Amino acid sequence: MQKFKWQRIVLKVGSALIAPDQDGCRSRYLLTIAQFIVRCRAQGIEVILVSSGSVAAGSHLFPEQEQRSVTMKKAMAAAGQTEMMAMWDRFFDFPSAQILLTHGDLRDRERYTSIRETVFTLLEHGVLPIINENDTVTTDDLKVGDNDNLSAMVAAAADADALMIFSDVDGLYDKNPNLHEDAVLLPEIESIDESIYAMAGCATSAVGTGGMKTKIEAAEKATSHGITTYILNGFKEETFNRLLAGDNPGTIFTPYEKPMQEAVHWMTHTANEQGEVVVEGSINESSNRENGCIRSDEILAVHGEFGVGDTILVRSDDGTRLAKATANYSSCLLSFIADNEQSEFSEKMQDSIGPVVSEKDIALLEKS
Ligand SMILES: Nc1ncnc2c1ncn2[C@@H]1O[C@H](COP(=O)(O)OP(=O)(O)O)[C@@H](O)[C@H]1O
Ligand SMILES: N[C@@H](CCC(=O)OP(=O)(O)O)C(=O)O
Question: Which among 55, 60, 88, 98 is the best mutation to test ligand 2's pocket, defined by most ligand atoms within 8 Å of the CB?
Fold first, then answer.
């Protein structure tokens, strides 16, 4: 069996563990998780906590019949977040730090880099980063939407070697165990495909978001970056003892043998496209494109508004998503150049700026 040999781990704690009876934060399960964090740190393992539960923790402060509105949920998150942080902080005799993020922060390369640096600095100084989505400021466009995916983005940003998702079930089953008595726990998943997603149902608790689907998405994101991912039962004390003994008490997803590089991973799994360029055929059909380098004379259409440095999608004329890339041109300039590709201006422009996307800033999406 595998030893507990990690150097840097991200622990994701679901809402049901924070506020199990929706009457504010409870220490019932958090105490065991806090002890686990203390034990990991005592072994020299760096820990980052992604804690859900602000909405569930804050719900008792607001009338039940109004809790479904988005505005009310944001208010619950704002109030619950302080309650939750106070609870976590009380367990530790080392300092902790709150980081609240949106997808808007993570998909912006500069802000992403700044988040990475802050996390590394906190870890270097022995401070426990506690991360949640900044629910109060999110909009549909800005949010990650669930902390499973957020925790995988955090694990990749932090160069963690393991992601442990603590939930209210023992792991991934072949069907929802809360609805099917004969569901079977799957201890190890070596690769994630449609058949794995087909097993995942929604959350059945009143406070969970995303159920198993978002946990599998998180596992896919994390394992593609070389991060071993677990889904575990945070209600059971034995989970933590078995983990420290090097055992697998839930479901383990094995990491890719050839993980993506950090920048390519970020572009594939964290950044989302601001616009797209349409080219003919597949990415390797043109000699220019062998290395993923695309020039304007290959562009059939430009969609959306983007600026230099934004992430764009490269799509084939048959609709296939070929690659994500960093734009070297704004959409406006690119449309002009593509429409006037024979002009002297277009040629001069490309000679000085270079290709539309360059080989070092492209993440291929096509399966080879
Ligand atoms: N195949 C499955 N295996 C395990 N749990 C599943 C499965 N499909 C759906 N679920 C549901 O997912 C829930 C866990 O997700 P969720 O409620 O979002 O937890 P959390 O708040 O910890 O993120 C389980 O309680 C279960 O009802
Ligand atoms: N950001 C939200 C958590 C959203 C979420 O994904 O919840 P969960 O499914 O319990 O991990 C909160 O703090 O309430």
Answer: 55
